[in-house]
Amino acid sequence: MYWQPVLRSESGSFSNVESALELQLHSDIAEFYGRYYSGCLLFESKWGEGELIQPWNADDFDLLQQNIIGHLMMKRKLKQPLTWFIGVLGDGDIMLTVNNQTGVVAKEVPGEEQSEVLADSLEAFLEQLTVKVAPPNLPAEEVVAAVEHPGIFASFKRMWRNLTGR
Question: What structural domains does the chain harbor?
Fold first, then answer.
């Protein structure tokens, strides 16, 4: 059985994030995350293989918003430009982020500023990717375990705990 992205009847909104953090999000973000429910989109590029994060369903969209709030709070605490993560490269230690002010897409290591600029816009970045076709996978259930390379979501959880003191 094949699963394909599903067009949402109503676009997802980040107005709650904008309101809570008193910011205006870059217009590319709502377009990128808000139109479809989808599994992660695998790609190949001149920077290596990676995946673009997409919300699987309404609950996953809520989780995405929570993770983005944690990421933005961390960026503010570190006094760094605000970025929105859209995916990962390789084994997940390098995020792909959109600068909220300029729309530039760049590599970013959690806790650091954007480093290598990959494209001037999200559209220009997406045009440079080649879709990678792979057998479908169910979304991974989170398992709390110590691993050598915890990946991006474990890093976000750790950052959130550090920010909130929990």
Answer: 6-164 (3.40.1580.20)
The tokens describing 25, both together, are 């999000």
Q: What is the pTM of this model?
A: 0.77
pLDDT at residue number 91 = 82
> Which amino acid is located at 152 in the chain?
I
Q: Which residues contact 145 (CB under 8 A, 6 or more apart)?
A: none
**Whole-number pLDDT of residue 84:** 93
CA distance 8 to 31: 12
3-state per-residue secondary structure call for the chain: CCCCCEECCCCCCCHHHHHHHCCCCCHHHHHHHHCEECCCEEEEECCEEEEECCCCCHHHHHHHHHHHHHHHHHHHHCCCCCEEEEEEECCCCEEEEEECCCCCEEEECCCCCCCCEEECCHHHHHHCCEECCCCCCCCCCCCCCCCCCCHHHHHHHHHHHHHHCC
CA angle 24, 60, 164 (to 5 degrees): 65
Residue 55's pLDDT is what? 92
Stronger pLDDT, 108 or 153, i.e. the higher one: 108
What average pLDDT score do residues 5-34 get?
A: 89
